[in-house]
């Protein structure tokens, strides 16, 4: 399954950014993102690459969807929740 995870850009350094994913900070490549990003922007990350910048008007809805997925999947054996958690942890 190909799944991206949203995160908030903390810092930008040339072709990488420090991004916060629910309290987990990771370095993400910016080589293929669809438009420039700046601190405070939200991006969709897939296996260490920002694949798109999330439009400011969509951030709230996007985060709410992922938070619901993570909350509801805490005690379930849900593959999508497992994929999101693995992406955040950097194990995929």
Helix proportion range: 25-40%
Regarding quaternary structure, what we see is: single chain
- The beta-strand count equals 5
Number of helices: 2
CATH class: Mainly Beta
Give the tally of structural domains: 1
Structural class: alpha+beta
Distance between the termini: 11 Å
Strand order of the largest sheet: 3-2-1-4-5
Shape: globular
Low-confidence stretches: none
The name CATH uses for the topology is SH3 type barrels
Report the average pLDDT across residues: 83
Characterize the main sheet: 5 strands, antiparallel
What gyration radius follows from the Cα positions, in whole Å?
A: 13 Å
How much of the polypeptide forms β-strand, as a percent range? 25-35%
CATH architecture: Roll
What's the order of the H and E elements?
A: EEEEEHH
Give a description of the structure.
- There is one protein chain.
- This protein has 92 residues and is an alpha+beta fold.
- It has a single domain, classed as Roll (SH3 type barrels), CATH 2.30.30.
- 30% of the residues lie in helices and 35% in strands.
- The protein has helices spanning 56-72, 79-89, and strands at residues 5-13, 16-21, 24-29, 42-46, 49-54.
- Strands 3-2-1-4-5 form a 5-stranded antiparallel sheet.
- It starts with a strand and ends with a helix.
């Amino acid at each position: 399954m190909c799944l991206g995870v949203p995160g908030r850009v903390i810092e930008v350094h040339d072709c990488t950014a420090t991004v916060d994913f629910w309290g987990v900070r990771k370095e993400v490549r910016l080589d293929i993102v669809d438009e420039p990003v700046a601190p405070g922007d939200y991006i969709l990350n897939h296996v260490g690459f920002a694949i798109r910048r999330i439009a400011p008007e969509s951030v709230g809805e996007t985060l709410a969807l992922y938070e619901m997925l993570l909350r509801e999947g805490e005690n379930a054996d849900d593959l999508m929740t497992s994929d999101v958690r693995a992406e955040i942890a950097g194990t995929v």
